[in-house]
Amino acid sequence: MIMDDKNAEAGGTDEVASLKRRAGLLSRRSFLAGSAASVGALGLAGCATSDGMSLAEASRLYGPVPDEKFPIPAIDVSKVDPKYFRRTVRYDTKEEPGTIIVDPGNYYVYRIEEDGNATRYGANVGRDGFRWSGEAYVGRKGEWATWTPPREMIKRQPEAAKWARGMPGGLENPLGARTLYLYQNGAYTLYTIYASLDAESIGNGITSGCVGLLTQDMLHLYDRTPVKTKVVVLPA
User: Fold this and answer.
1) pLDDT tens across 204-229, in order?
2) Between 37 and which of 28, 45, 74, 124 could a Cys-Cys bridge form, CB atoms 3.0 to 4.6 Å apart?
3) CB 142 within 8 A of CB 125
4) Which residue in 210, 212, 181, 182 sits closest to 195, CA to CA?
5) Domain positions in the chain
6) Domain L,D-TPase catalytic, which positions (predicted)?
7) Cβ–Cβ under 8 Å, residues 62 and 183
8) Separation between Cα atoms, residue 133 and residue 141, nearest integer Å
9) What is the distance between the alpha carbons of residues 160 and 15, in angstroms, rounded to a whole number?
10) For residue 146, how many other CB atoms are within 10 A of its CB?
11) pLDDT at 30 over 50
12) Residue among 38, 56, 40 nearest 48 (CA)
């Protein structure tokens, strides 16, 4: 799970291992990935995925976001199964437009749109033993939030002690660029929907119950999601 800046435990990947992996990804690729996306747009223009989106289109969709407080690098789309690329799909539901539906069994998040459609995003979800289902709502939102590991995590993973007073927001912060905090009956559930730069996490169960979207997808969802938005998590 990812918790807030009071007692946060991030997105449930083996948390510190995730920090190290993410730091490695950034140190190796950083904005070189943005250049790779541009090259890909030229060299892969004729290569379509099984869902009909060319890899060039995917490279543009998940390209760098330089105007952020911390400029966001491109996602290496070659590391993502094409079925998890963002797209509009038909989705039959009685839920109102704007509702977020999490389908952990298939690693998708849906935002319900008008006329029987939904925007579908690929996701990472809770690992075995940490998945949950039910209804919640977005109680608050955060941009580049501070992450503070709880005492329980520090005891379990002593290397996290360096962040006992909080890790400032940034590219290496497990909370990511944007966070939706899930509440029930006025109380924070300790679960979130958060932004991830780890392309290889999408389509996998790695968290302690939180749900991660690729950062570019999370920016897209976050901007369209007000506080009090209903969230439905389906059984896995």
Assistant:
1) 999 889 999 999 999 999 999 999 99
2) 74
3) no
4) 212
5) 82-233
6) 98-234
7) no
8) 21
9) 9
10) 18
11) no
12) 56
